[in-house]
Design goal:
Blueprint: H1 7-15, E1 20-24, E2 33-37, E3 39-41, E4 47-52, H2 56-67, E5 69-76, E6 82-94, H3 99-106, H4 112-123, E7 130-144
Antiparallel strand pairs: 1-2, 1-5, 3-4, 4-7, 5-6, 6-7
Keywords: Oxidoreductase
GO molecular function, one term: oxidoreductase activity, acting on the CH-CH group of donors
Pfam families: Pyridox_ox_2
Length: 146
């Protein structure tokens, strides 16, 4: 049996460094694009994540900018199973994020020195490799099977 998380439980869970799964409306007759991403979240604030602007990731960026809204799910793959889904509105798309902004997200998943190296390499690239998206949470879904 599951229960809905309280607001505090939901926000604490989302603030942990899980992998998020982004889903955004697609173009044409294709189903929604759904991909894993690294993200950052501070309780009570907005959700942030970055995408690329080249190759396969360029489609994700274009779809996010066109749709302006998304669903974002974070789950715990081990018992007790829990998940939080955010339905939100894109309120920012920074095409020139600072190395500090990128390192703040990458540093949740990589050692600090590696995260800093990735951030400096990618943000120093003249082709503008990353777009930092900011999403305002509009609706929440959650479950705790514990």
């Amino acid at each position: 049996m599951s229960r809905t998380m309280t607001a505090a439980e939901r926000e604490d869970f989302l603030a942990q460094p899980h992998i998020g799964v982004l889903s955004v409306a697609s173009d044409g007759d294709r189903p929604p694009l759904t991909v894993p991403v690294w993200y950052a979240y501070q309780p009570g604030g907005n959700l942030t994540f970055f995408t690329g602007t080249q190759g396969r990731t360029a489609r994700k960026t274009a779809l996010l900018e066109r749709a302006g809204r998304l669903s974002f799910c974070v789950q715990s793959p081990e018992p007790p199973y829990r998940y939080v889904t955010v339905e939100g509105t894109v309120v920012g798309a920074d095409r020139s994020p600072s190395a500090e902004d990128v390192a703040a997200i990458a540093g949740r998943y990589l050692p600090e020195d590696v995260a800093r190296g990735v951030a400096e390499e990618e943000t120093g690239n003249a082709s503008g490799t990353f777009v930092l998206f900011t999403v305002r949470p509009d609706r929440w879904l959650s479950a705790d099977f514990g």
